[in-house]
């Protein structure tokens, strides 16, 4: 017995030294998560630990039934924690140092407060919900949508709440007159000749999420009444990962894409490419009645069009954690687009007695191409232990496009009218530089946040239009000096902002001021020079939010936005692709200012959320396209500051998740708009716009999933209405080979192609147009992942028990 006691004493004596030698380079971080109000423990809260300034967590797991957590076997160093749970705001704890002097780091009791910014359940073993609703942002998680797989940004945007995509791929936020499109927080729309082309080649597999900002923060440009921010994936977990995908549709569209990422201890390298082809078809009918004091006549037009397009997107990025306080990110992308188009139209002129007096046939051919290159670098520096961060960004963009089109016009009768053949060669070039410097810092014991920054944007646009008419006598093309022109546009914007965010006892208040100095000039090759007087604009914004009873919140916000006229609306070059319906810009346009007010209410439970919103906006000097008809019957379309517009909108957003495998979401908005114009009394009108969307997804047995969406739109315009249109989509997916291989089939508008109906009315005309497009398509997709992304888990040891004896 004595020997046994001696051996036991010896083992207990040397055990600390053995343990210390084995864990000399390892430590632990532990703590407890409770509710701020009531101090009740929160079980199953998600806790993630990050290396300082890193974006990917080192390890993630859930708290136990008593809210306790512990990370074991942690390397010595400085970390940060993120704690989140459904219905509560995320909590960050910075500068947690595990050292030899403090191997067992206890962060103490962490209190979570209710917050609207995180209304959805966060479970590390399940995918994110498709839609998340915040105080001033709606997030669409692309990876959670079956319909998004193997598609492009344009396709994904069609299912994002509050977002509308027209038949030409132009994207807007519902109820907003102008919308900006950003990529990774950087403007992309004004630095490309056609943003629709860029979105149409950007693969969905490279996109992490899409943010819809109705009241963008002060650090973003004040241009536009809202921002759609496309957030790209920054890489995968440690090691080499990636995916390959290919899809094909019954309408002749194909899409091939590949993404790969390698992540080391302090850096990650990502790259990817995609190539797609597509065929679009459209047929329209237009009926216009023209009124004049002495006569009435009719123009009827029937069109058929076909467009075959192709494009590619190639990306590369480097993310480097230089040290614990510094990070450098470099990324670049290159996009190419090309298309061949054909369209034909029959134009009927009918007199007052409803007798057809003229029939014109026109054939249009088009050959289009574009290229876009972007280089971007961002540097961030943690300036102090309180969490202050300085970031600097620099972006260079260059793109070019060429459009060669021909228009051949002949007359079936009367036969004495001569045919004509015209060729338009349009070359467009854009160059741009963006620079931003931002600083944000938690203050007053990290309760509040102070932000300020500076930005400079320069952009140059060259538009060279050459028009030639064919001389049938000499069988040669002759330049048309009246229609040919060169347009040169230069824009410089210098901006600064200051923002302060206050939080206490469930209250959150934010006040910000942004100012922008704008200097614009443009001229024509004809010798006309336009120097817009530089102007300084101020954009205040205020928001107040209150979170109470753990399940409710209410907020109000106010902001001022600007809509600047740019080259597409200023350029006076005449587009006479249809000689009876010409269009051109207006170089005399002024910027339009919009005052926006929003009131939101949120209620949420464990399986549902409901967020109604009421917004009011009042815009002056609204820039709208409007049409008028001359006495010779030729319709002219241009832009003008038509006057004022106000709108009141009610939007309802809801999510319901009865089980972990079933999810439903929907939104409905009704908008009352009223226009008042001092230039054209025909624009003095108002009306209701209705937009709605419903989505449903289900996880089925045998690694199968299903998703469906329904969209409805009926919108008022300045001179009429875009009447009701319905879009439906369905998708099913099955996984194989331990989730590495997935196959998907989706159907877009399976019952019929998308139909459009518009009505317009002016002082001396009204018109109706009806169109149908080949949107009814069935797409098959196969995707293979190199490795399965896993989340490391740490088992929390049970609390020690004590014997009553």
TrEMBL record:
> InterPro entries recorded for this chain?
Beta-barrel_TonB_sf (IPR036942), CarboxyPept-like_regulatory (IPR008969), OMP_b-brl_3 (IPR041700), Plug_dom_sf (IPR037066)
Keywords from the UniProt entry: Cell outer membrane, Membrane, Signal
Keyword check for Membrane: yes
Tell me where in this chain the Outer membrane protein beta-barrel domain is found.
382-784
Location within or outside the cell: Cell outer membrane
Q: Where is the signal peptide?
A: 1-19
Q: What is this protein called?
A: Outer membrane beta-barrel protein
């Amino acid at each position: 017995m004595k020997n046994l006691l001696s051996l036991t004493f010896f083992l207990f004596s040397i055990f600390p030294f053995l343990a210390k030698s084995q864990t000399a380079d390892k430590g632990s971080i532990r703590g407890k998560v409770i509710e701020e109000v009531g101090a009740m423990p929160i079980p199953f809260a998600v806790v993630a630990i990050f290396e300082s300034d890193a974006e990917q967590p080192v390890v993630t797991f859930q708290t136990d039934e008593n809210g306790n957590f512990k990370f074991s076997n942690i390397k010595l160093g400085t970390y940060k924690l993120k704690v989140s749970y459904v219905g509560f705001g995320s909590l960050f704890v910075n500068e947690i140092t595990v050292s030899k002097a403090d191997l067992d780091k206890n962060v103490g009791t962490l209190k979570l407060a209710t917050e609207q910014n995180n209304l959805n359940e966060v479970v590390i073993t399940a995918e994110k919900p498709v839609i998340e609703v915040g105080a001033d942002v709606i997030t669409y998680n692309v990876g959670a949508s079956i319909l998004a797989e193997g598609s492009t940004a344009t396709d994904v945007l069609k299912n994002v709440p509050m977002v509308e995509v027209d038949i030409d791929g132009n994207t807007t936020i519902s109820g907003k007159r102008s919308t900006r499109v950003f990529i990774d927080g950087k403007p992309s729309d004004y630095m490309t000749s056609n943003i629709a082309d860029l979105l149409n080649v950007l693969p969905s597999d490279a996109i992490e999420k899409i943010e819809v900002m109705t009241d963008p923060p002060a650090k973003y440009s004040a241009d536009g009444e809202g921002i759609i921010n496309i957030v790209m994936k920054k890489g995968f977990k440690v090691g080499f990962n990636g995916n390959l995908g290919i899809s094909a549709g019954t309408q002749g569209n194909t899409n091939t894409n590949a993404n790969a990422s390698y992540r080391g201890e302090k850096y990650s390298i990502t790259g990817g490419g995609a190539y797609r082809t597509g065929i679009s078809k459209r047929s329209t009918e237009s009926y216009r009645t023209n009124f004049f004091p002495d006569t009435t006549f009719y123009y009827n037009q029937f069109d058929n069009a076909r467009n075959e397009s192709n494009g590619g997107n190639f990306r590369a990025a480097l993310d480097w954690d230089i040290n614990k306080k510094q990070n450098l990110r470099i990324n670049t992308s290159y996009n190419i687009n090309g298309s061949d188009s054909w369209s034909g139209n029959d134009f009927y002129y009918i007199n007052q007695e409803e007798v057809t007096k003229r029939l014109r046939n026109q054939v249009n051919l088009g050959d289009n191409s574009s290229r876009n290159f972007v280089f971007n670098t961002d540097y961030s520096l943690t300036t102090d232990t309180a969490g202050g961060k300085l970031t600097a960004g620099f972006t260079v963009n260059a793109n070019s496009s060429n459009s060669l089109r021909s228009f051949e016009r002949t007359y079936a009768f009367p036969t004495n009218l001569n045919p004509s053949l015209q060729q338009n060669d349009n070359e467009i070039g854009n160059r741009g530089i963006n620079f931003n410097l931002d600083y944000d810092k938690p203050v007053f014991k990290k309760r509040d946040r102070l932000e300020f920054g500076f930005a400079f944007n320069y952009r140059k646009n060259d538009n060279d239009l050459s028009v030639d008419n064919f001389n049938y006598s000499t069988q040669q093309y002759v330049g048309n000096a009246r229609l040919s022109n060169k347009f040169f546009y230069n824009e410089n914007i210098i901006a600064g902002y200051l923002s302060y965010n206050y939080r206490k006892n469930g209250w959150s208040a934010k006040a910000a001021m942004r100012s922008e100095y704008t200097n614009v000039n443009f001229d024509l090759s004809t010798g006309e020079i336009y120097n817009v007087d530089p102007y300084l604009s101020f954009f205040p914004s205020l928001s107040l939010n209150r979170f109470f009873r753990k399940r409710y919140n209410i907020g109000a916000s106010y902001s001022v936005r600007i809509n600047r006229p740019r080259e597409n609306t200023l350029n006076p070059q005449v587009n006479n692709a249809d000689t009876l319906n010409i269009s051109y810009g207006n170089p005399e346009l002024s910027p339009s200012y919009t005052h926006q007010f929003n009131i939101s209410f949120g209620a949420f439970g464990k399986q549902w959320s409901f967020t109604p919103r009421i917004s009011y906006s009042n815009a002056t000097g609204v820039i709208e396209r409007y049409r008028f008809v001359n006495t010779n019957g030729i319709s002219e379309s241009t832009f003008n500051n038509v006057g004022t517009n106000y709108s009141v909108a009610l939007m309802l957003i809801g999510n319901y998740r009865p089980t972990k495998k079933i999810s439903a979401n929907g939104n409905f908005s009704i908008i009352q708009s009223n226009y008042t114009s001092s230039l054209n009394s025909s624009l003095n009108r108002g009306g209701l716009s209705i937009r709605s969307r419903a989505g449903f997804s289900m996880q089925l047995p045998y690694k199968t999933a299903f998703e469906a969406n329904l969209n409805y739109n009926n919108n008022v315009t300045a001179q009429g209405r875009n009447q009701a249109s319905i879009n439906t989509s369905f998708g099913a997916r099955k996984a194989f080979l331990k989730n590495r291989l997935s196959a998907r089939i989706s159907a877009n508008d399976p019952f019929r192609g998308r139909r459009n109906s518009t009505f317009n009315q002016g002082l001396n005309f009204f018109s109706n147009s009806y169109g149908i497009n080949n949107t009814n398509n069935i797409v098959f997709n196969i995707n293979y992942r190199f490795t399965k992304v896993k989340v490391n888990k740490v088992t929390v040891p049970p609390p020690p028990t004590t014997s009553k004896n």
